Every structure is written in C-alpha cells, then in structure tokens.
Amino acid sequence: MSTLAPAPAHSEILERARSGERIGEEDALALLRSGDLVGVGEAARAVRDARTNPDEVTFIIDRNVNYTNFCVTDCDFCAFYRLPRDPEGYVLPKSVIFRKIEETLALGGTALLLQGGHHPGLRIDYYEDLFRSIKARYPIHLHALSPSEVLHIARFSKLTLDETITRLRAAGLDSIPGGGAEILVDRVRDIIAPKKTTSDEWLGVMRAAHLQGLSTSATMMYGTVDTLEDRVEHLRRLRELQDEAPGFRAFVCWSYQSGGGSRRGDDHAHTTAADYLLTLAVSRLYLDNFDHFQSSWVTQGLRIGQLALEFGCDDMGSIMIEENVVRAAGTAFRLDTERMVAAIEATGRRAVQRDTAYRVVRRF
What we know:
Elements: H1 10-18, H2 25-34, H3 37-51, E1 56-60, E2 62-66, H4 94-106, E3 111-115, H5 124-137, E4 141-144, H6 147-156, H7 161-171, E5 175-176, H8 186-192, H9 199-211, E6 215-222, H10 228-244, E7 248-255, H11 273-286, E8 292-294, H12 297-300, H13 302-307, E9 315-318, H14 325-328, H15 337-345, E10 350-354, E11 360-363
Parallel strand pairs: 1-9, 1-10, 2-3, 3-4, 5-6, 6-7, 7-8
Antiparallel strand pairs: 10-11
Helix pairs in contact: 1-3, 2-10, 2-11, 3-11, 5-7, 6-7, 6-9
C-alpha cells in the first residue's frame, strides 16, 4: 500500500461518511487511530440504518460441516487441522453428512456451510460426486469451500481456476464463503499462513466466482501480526474487487482466537472488544459497496455480538448448529433459534430469519 497522507480531523471524516461520500484509506486509518468508539460507532450505525431496515436484524439457520480436517497448509493460527496420516484426522462419510443435513432441515435450516482442510488426496471428482449427491436428496443451499480450498482443488486436479468453478457450480455449488482471507497482505500471510493462497490468489478466486455469477462473502481475521495499516489495505482490496466485479453479499470480521495451536507463543497483537467494535465500525464506513455486515458473536461472545448491532451490523449470522474450527481454538458460544430471537429482540429490533441470499424466510 502506498504511503498514506495526513488525514483530516476524524470528525470531518465522519461527516463525509454519513453524507454518503466515499472515504479514503488515510481516512479509515485516522478513524482506527482515533479511538473515538462512540463517534465512529454512531456514524456506522447511521450508515447501516440508511442501507438496511433499521428496525430489523437478520440471522440464518444453517450448519457448518467440516467434511475433513486433514490439511497440508499448516497455518500458524489453526488448532483444527491434522496432517495426513494423523490418527485424529477424518473424512466424513456421505451418510454422516446426509444425517447432519437432515437435522439442519428439521430445525428450519436453509443452508449447508461445507468447508474443510486442504486434503492432498481429494480431487474435483470427490466434490462433484458429493455435491450432486446432496442436491439430489435435499432442498438446501450449498455454501461451500473457501477460495483457498477452490484453488487447492484446481491445482491438485490439474485444472484451471475457471474450469474448477464451472464444474463445481454445475455439480451444485451455490455460493462461496469468504474463509481464509485472514489479512490480505502478503507480509502477514507469509508469517501466519505461508502455504495458503496469496492475497492476489484469494481475490482471484472471488473475482472468477463473481464473474461466473456466484455470490460470496468477505471476511477479515485481524490480531495476529497485522498493523492498522494492514487492516486498511485488506479493506481497500475488498472494496476495489467489489467495484470491479460485484458479488460480495456481506462482510464479517473477528479477532484472532489465541487459544489455538499457534507456534508463535504470545507475540500476536493484543486485541480487545473495543478494538473489535471500532474495526467493525470503520469497515462499515469504508466498505460503502457492501450491503450487509455480520456480527461475530461466535468469537466475541453474545453481549459484544449484540453491541455490534450499534456499530454497523445488520445481521447476526448463524445460530451455529455446529461449529468446529473456532471451537478448536477454545471459543464455544452457541445459540438456538429461540435464544437468537430473544437476543435480537433485547436490542429493540425485530428478528428475521433469512436465507444465504438475504431473502426473508420468516419474521418473528
């Protein structure tokens, strides 16, 4: 990222953002540095209220199924993966995945979030067979893989990226989640996930998916070895891609969960709830071409997740029927539908169940 020029006073930046003017990278950095949690949060809430119904908060009922934990990427921050031949590694049989889908549908669920590790033995025919088997049996949205998994499949199957996406889409892939973005700055990625996709590769998968008509989500995991400048660079690259090839439905950020398997000890950046809320609010103001922002209550806890609704979020994400990756790092917040609705209503808003495309399924 180029050297940032001195930014105007942050109050003037907030006025421009409230009025709908696009703010720049130096503005976003000034807001992150300002520490003005109240002022930035109020502006983010105003922008959120102008973009989405201020009286409603959405959520989805889906299930996060990790079809395998075998992975050769060896990321510094991940406590979930197992190397090939590890006795704790697994590949779920179809029968288990089918049962999990049936349980999800019985609970009113509409989507399957299917992600796993970078398994060295699974080629594209495995995914085509699995996706077709799911679609032949169940009326469920398949929100599957991540950019790094898609690229891994392409490489191990000796296919181009476009060929891979085309074949996966034909087999039943409906949309791609934004996992694996971490921070889209290669200096950071070279430290925490040197074997995973580069920043350009992650963005390249999403660009190709958008151009083929698939929608996606965008994420940011901060708090490893990144700086505030790195966070702004991450947001810049997302906004530029959304301008170039629209397709991101939503943005969600969260802090690194230090209970994971990091080999770097305690040298990751220290983060707080205030840091999360400020980062979220600045993201809402800067990412002016994103409609939806999701609260990460799964990593931050329910109370902070509710507060996120005052800092730019309009969506509470999933009730998390199942979640394994964050849980492996020692964080285990869960809700059922009744408690999710109660949590939203406690903020004075109406709870609305949505599907993956943010279409209304049910109003409570």
